[in-house]
Amino acid sequence: MGGMLFLSLLVIAYLFLISFLGYRGYRNTRTAADYLVAGGGAHPVVMALSYGAAFISTSAIVGFGGAAAMFGLGILWLVFLNVFVGVFIAFVFVGIPTRAMGHRLGAHTFPELLGRRFDSETVHQFAAWLILLFMPLYAGVVLMGASKFIEVRLGMHYETALFFFSIIVALYVILGGLKGVMYADAMQGGIMLFGITLLVFLAYQRLGGVVPAHARLTGLADEAVRIMGTEGHRGWTAMPAFGSRFWWVLVTSIMLGVGVGVLAQPQLAVRYMTVKSGQELNRAVLVGGVFILMVTGGIYVVGALSNVYFLNDPEIGQVSLVAANKDIEQIIPLFITRYMPGWLGDIFFVTLMSAAMSTACGLFHAMGTAAGRDVYDRISGNTESGRTILVTRAGIFA
Questions:
Q1: Contacting residues for 308 by C-beta, under 8 A, at least 6 apart
Q2: What is the pLDDT of residues 224-247, one digit of tens each?
Q3: In the chain, what are the domains?
Q4: For residue 221, what are the CA distances in angstroms to 75, 163, 190, 396?
Q5: Does the pLDDT of residue 106 top 60, yes or no?
Q6: Beta strands of 177-300 (E only): which ranges?
């Protein structure tokens, strides 16, 4: 009963803060620029946390945390790419010229930026319809994943969880625009950073510290080779054998696919246009880099270390993948449920909700602006900010 009370209080406090920040965004939104690019005056810390929270979804925490339990610490190269490509190159070499170009061309959305840069209505509309047609698939996956966690953790019916989660996301995006989204994302980024840092600390503490924990993980190499050696596994503290099946999956599908693909996500690219100058993006690099390093690096380390816990558990005695019935998405939840205190499970639940909601709201906003600014305004010839905001809100709701 006490545990459920703590979780209920956490969820209520979380929803209150989300509502307050959405309302604050609504009160501070006056023009189309406010709604579409947060007025172009966001603080670099808010921008960095918002970018990071939208970048890191629930799948990055649960899915790739489980992948780390399978592939080992070689997946930390993905963290390097996330920080180097996803933050440093993205902010300095892509973000600064993108912000300058967007300001010079008066662009408020990513499709509008492309269209004005190439002086092509075809490019503009193609990019907008690409977002409208395919981004709902991504958003749907995020919503369904979050709803499944809510269903399990709160005991709600899946359809009810999906309905309420979708409504909450839609409401604060519709009302607050990108200002509300960025305020809420920054807060949710802080929750994610706190939750993952706490999880890493306890995972190491219960194994006697950093050095003993990694020594025990290294000592399990023979077990990894016995079970997955034919696939190229050489232990959880080593890269898979060069050219093996595991090596190709880790390097091509996970590292390069995720580590480089961040540069092409329109819901993230629009964040570059929310700050006042290129210098603000430079200032955001440190905050964004630390955030991505701690959140992704932390959960990947915990995923790999989970093998030590499961193998030394007399009731299980198996590697993480086998303990979770070969479902990598169940490894992190099972690890937390079995080996971490209940209150941490409650905090981790809110952490996952923050990751899902921050990603979903960025997608909702990108789809709504594509419908309102890029399609409706161009077809109707509308130049009124109020009508642009109204149609964009309708697009988000739809």
A1: 207, 213, 216, 217, 220
A2: 898 888 889 999 999 999 999 999
A3: 2-18+46-93+123-264+282-397 (1.20.1730.10)
A4: 16, 45, 35, 50
A5: yes
A6: none
